[in-house]
Design a protein that fits this description.
Catalytic activity: (sulfur carrier)-H + L-cysteine = (sulfur carrier)-SH + L-alanine
Distance between the termini: 43 Å
Strand content: 15-25%
Family: Belongs to the class-V pyridoxal-phosphate-dependent aminotransferase family. Csd subfamily.
Bound molecules: 4'-deoxy-4'-aminopyridoxal-5'-phosphate
Helix content: 40-55%
Number of strands: 15
Keywords: Pyridoxal phosphate, Transferase
Enzyme class: transferase
Organism: Jeongeupia chitinilytica
Number of helices: 15
Order of helices and strands: HHEHHEHEHEHEHEHEEHEEHHEEHEEHEH
Length: 404
């Protein structure tokens, strides 16, 4: 297989023209956008901007075609059976809130159990806690084993008849740990539970085939997969969506409104109240098209090789621990330091043009389990190169020398 052409691909990202020395290793927070995405959004605004679904004029039809066309292309990328299984949201957070508020409030009863792993981002914990408070259900953590991955035996023991939903990340945003999704989804389904996968960190690397995955819900954000901010997707199977009530009210989501009672539109529109993120949806479809034009296995191999090069270079530095080092991980390296504070390290790295993330990364329970106040995270994407990694390692070595 040909190696991934990261150096050439970097030229497609205008941010590096404005910041030629930027070593951007904060891709798990958000990725930069290729020209294909910027052009698609701009082209939409220039040629087809109007509100969707109701205009009687030609621009309204053009906007609707662009928006619904984006839905179809995203469904194809996900290998969804139907385009109407793709619901546009503001991002992963809103997608999970939609599932929790619509499916959760309709289906959860006192005593029901929601399982969420200790790896989860707050976005896949707090919405379930809120709906649990309203319904009398309880949220229980799926514990981790010593390797920092989910403990399958503990998960098996938690899968009782009361479990209605299992909330799992495709890839930990904090440590990059990849839970054993397939066996966990199969076990959860066999126990009669629904499964929601938080794909915010998964989709950009390994990609996803929602039908092969076998979960009930898959949520992701555009901005972490080379697309725009302000748009994300909740995918769910058609049969499931058909029985889910609306969660936000307004225009677009209704069938007929009267003060005597209102009826609601079919999915996906039932879940898309108000003007949707139209240009952003077009941009997201362009981002997924852009990804589909590349050799995905080569991209993942490239990102993984960058992570491994970074981690190999860390071996010559003292007082650093790689979190979750002994288990399967995506292209993310999270570090704990013995003698220095991660915030200080990140500040110094910024002085060398190296952008990393520091803190708890919205994964409080994981950091409590790790016994850390914070960690430092480097995360890799298509446009990163070996030179980025080497510069980051050199900056880190100098920083540790200065701080120690
Ligand atoms: N889940 C995971 C695993 C994430 O990494 C993030 C973003 N950090 C989110 C959920 C929330 O995504 P957003 O802020 O785009 O809604």
């Amino acid at each position: 297989n040909a190696p991934f052409p990261a150096v050439r691909i970097r030229d497609e990202f205008p941010v590096f023209r404005h910041h030629p020395d930027l070593i951007y290793l904060d891709n798990a927070a958000t990725t930069h956008k290729p020209l294909a995405v910027l052009d698609a959004e701009r082209d939409f605004y220039e040629t087809a901007n109007a509100n969707v679904h109701r205009a009687a004029h030609r621009l309204g039809s053009a906007a609707t075609d662009a928006f619904e066309g984006a839905r179809h292309r995203i469904a194809t990328h996900l290998n969804a059976a139907h385009a109407d299984e793709v619901i546009f949201t503001r991002g992963t957070t809103e997608a999970i809130n939609l599932a929790a508020n619509s499916w959760g409030r309709a289906n959860l009863r006192p005593g029901d159990v929601i399982l969420a792993s200790v790896l989860e981002h707050h976005a896949n914990i707090v919405p379930w806690q809120l709906v649990a408070q309203q319904t009398g259900a309880v949220v229980r953590p799926i514990p981790l084993g010593a390797d920092g991955n989910i403990d399958p035996a503990a998960f098996g023991a938690l899968l009782t008849a009361e479990v209605r939903l299992v909330a799992l990340t495709h890839c930990s945003n904090a440590t990059g740990v990849l839970p054993p999704l397939q066996p966990m989804i199969a076990a959860a389904k066999a126990a009669g539970a629904r499964v929601l996968i938080d794909g915010a960190q998964g989709i950009a690397h390994a990609g996803v085939d929602v039908r092969a995955l076998g979960a009930d819900f898959y949520a992701f954000s555009g901005h972490k997969v080379y697309g725009p901010t302000g748009v994300g997707v909740l995918w769910a199977r058609r049969e499931l969506l058909a029985h889910m009530p609306p969660w936000q009210g307004g225009g677009e989501m209704i069938d007929r409104v009267s003060f005597d009672g209102t009826t609601f539109a079919e999915p996906p529109f039932r879940f898309e109240a108000g003007t949707p993120p139209i240009a952003q949806a077009v941009g997201l479809a362009a981002a997924l098209d852009w990804l589909d034009r590349h050799d995905r296995p080569a991209l993942l191999a490239h990102e993984t090789a960058l992570r491994d090069r970074f981690e190999a270079g860390l071996q010559s530095l003292d007082g650093i621990r790689i979190l979750g080092a002994g288990t399967a991980r995506g292209p993310i390296t999270a570090l704990a330091f013995d003698r220095v504070h991660p915030y200080d390290v990140a500040q110094f790295l910024d002085g060398y043009g190296v952008a990393v993330r520091v803190g708890q990364h919205c994964a409080g329970p994981l950091h409590q389990w790790l016994g850390l106040n914070g960690s430092l995270r480097a995360s890799f994407a298509a446009y990163n190169t070996g030179a980025d990694v080497d510069a980051a390692l050199a900056a880190l070595a100098t920083t540790l020398d200065m701080l120690a």
